[in-house]
Write a structure and sequence with these properties.
Blueprint lengths: L12 E2 L2 E2 L1 H10 L10 E5 L12 H13 L3 E5 L24 H11 L8 H4 L5 E6 L11 E4 L2 H14 L5 H44 L5 E2 L8 E7 L5 H9 L7 E2 L7 H7 L3 E7 L5 H27 L1
Parallel strand pairs: 3-4, 4-5
Antiparallel strand pairs: 1-2, 5-6, 7-8, 8-10, 9-10
The structure holds pyridoxal-5'-phosphate (PLP).
Pyridoxal-5'-phosphate binds next to loops.
Length: 317
């Protein structure tokens, strides 16, 4: 948005996703016509990066109605759609029993696993005002940087032309990898893979939340339970607003890497001014093992304790 010098407005998110009343308020506050009126709503709808929340179908319907009323195009960025698992805990990994191997028991757990699937804006679209973006990067292999768009034919064709002008096409190697895998799996194999992957991330989410609850005890730290994706968005109070220095200078020394919240804030300076004693970091539950997550959160929590202590001492000195 910034590199394109777009005029943008920020709409807050909460546990149920984008807040329709905030969108309505922003739209109502603008002149009724002219260049100041927004034409596009961009939204990461499932497992929002970094907040980890998904916009509920009820909210999507309200937001779609607002888009109709104000003639907005909805850009539905949804790379985490296949990683929607809900807020309830994941089923525990199955153990071998006298009658069944661990693999057979786990296959039964998977067969009974019934995670949610979110309804897309595209499926609600009756006017041809939604352009949807899916990705294979989060479900087949990270770094594939391969996805697909769906929406009105004329827009998709325009998008194709624009891609030809920018990069010709996505790299051929990931395209062949994805095509061959999908051909080999067929629909049933794809669905099984999606379910297994959801369960994998669902369990990782539970592990990260459990180790956070253990190590963050007593610290002024706040976070929600993500219902999809691979991120937990953490608010830390009492250590100023500079997450970048905390992570890049201090956490890295402890060999812990989280993403400083500044990377996601629309206006970090304004945020720091409004909330000088809040900082944000994004924790990720993807490649790290359960043991690594435990150790990383332990080290990060210790760093927060050390910093809190140092701050207290500097105030009393
Ligand atoms: C919201 C969002 N959109 C798009 C992408 C990029 O997807 P891709 O790997 O298909 O380029 C990411 C993450 O990489 C993301 O978090």
């Amino acid at each position: 948005v910034y590199t394109r010098k777009c005029n943008s407005f920020v709409i807050p998110l909460c546990q149920d996703g984008l807040v329709p009343s905030s969108l309505a308020a922003v739209l109502a506050s603008l002149p009724a016509s002219g260049p100041a009126r927004p034409r596009v709503l961009y939204s990461i709808v499932t497992g929002q990066n970094p907040a980890g929340v998904s916009t509920t179908v009820e909210r999507k319907k309200e937001i779609y109605a607002l888009a109709q009323q104000h003639n907005l195009v909805i850009l539905e960025d949804d790379p985490y759609w296949n990683l929607h698992f809900g807020r309830v805990p994941a089923p525990a990994p199955a153990m071998a029993t006298a009658g069944a191997t661990a693999e057979a028991a786990e296959a039964e757990v998977l067969a009974a696993y019934n995670p949610p699937t979110s309804t897309s804006y595209l499926s609600l679209d009756t006017d041809g005002r939604v352009l949807r973006f899916d990705s294979f990067s989060k479900i087949l292999s990270s770094g594939m940087r391969l996805g697909f768009i769906s929406g009105p034919r004329a827009w998709v064709e325009q998008f194709n032309l624009s891609t030809q002008a920018l990069s010709i096409h996505p790299s051929g190697v990931p395209q062949v990898m994805a095509a061959r895998l999908l051909q080999q799996w067929g629909e049933a194999g794809w669905r099984k893979h999606v379910k297994q992957t959801k369960l994998f991330y669902h369990r990782k989410r539970d592990t990260l939340l459990a180790v956070m609850a253990k190590h963050f005890a007593g610290l002024d730290v706040e976070y929600d339970t993500p219902d999809a994706g691979m991120f937990v968005w953490v608010k830390v109070r009492g250590l100023g607003s500079d997450a970048k220095t905390l992570i890049e200078d201090k956490a890295v020394k402890e060999k812990v890497l989280l993403l400083p919240g500044e990377a996601f804030l629309v206006d970090p300076a304004a945020q720091a001014k409004a909330h000088p004693d809040e900082l944000y970091v994004r924790a990720c539950f993807s490649v790290a093992s359960d043991e690594e997550m435990d150790e990383a959160v332990r080290r990060f929590a210790n760093l927060l304790r050390k910093e809190t202590e140092a701050k207290k001492n500097s105030k009393t000195a």
